[in-house]
Amino acid sequence: MNYFLYLSSCDTCKRIIAELPLTQDVEMIDIKKNPITQNQLTDLHQANGSYVELINKRAQLFKKRQIDTQNISEETAKKLLLEHYTFLKRPVLVYQNRVFIGNSKATVAEAKNWLDEH
Q1: Angstrom distance (rounded) from CA 88 to CA 81
Q2: pLDDT for the residue 84
Q3: What residues does each domain of the chain span?
Q4: Which of 31, 52, 103, 109 has the fewest CB atoms lying closer than 10 Å?
Q5: Which residues lie closer than 8 Å to 69 by C-beta, 6 or more apart?
């Protein structure tokens, strides 16, 4: 299944959506309205090997809850990702068994190249 996890209120996500040649076979999932599921999270974990790598360490809830982002365990990361959408590093593109996580220029360029080739 091809899907794109994003936050509709995020300007960076909007910019990346405009940049990527996303086709109709990519399901667009606004994580605020449709939080990440256990199955999606398991798939992402299997693809990249780490829940911690899926964490958006700039999420404001870390400060609010006084959570140290430098010492998050895999189990804590998994719990946080299922608990609130803001903890997910975004956007996330899953396309033909490849996963692209985050908004770095390199990640977006790699995703764009992958989509152009497939």
Answers
A1: 6
A2: 95
A3: 3-117
A4: 109
A5: 55, 57, 62
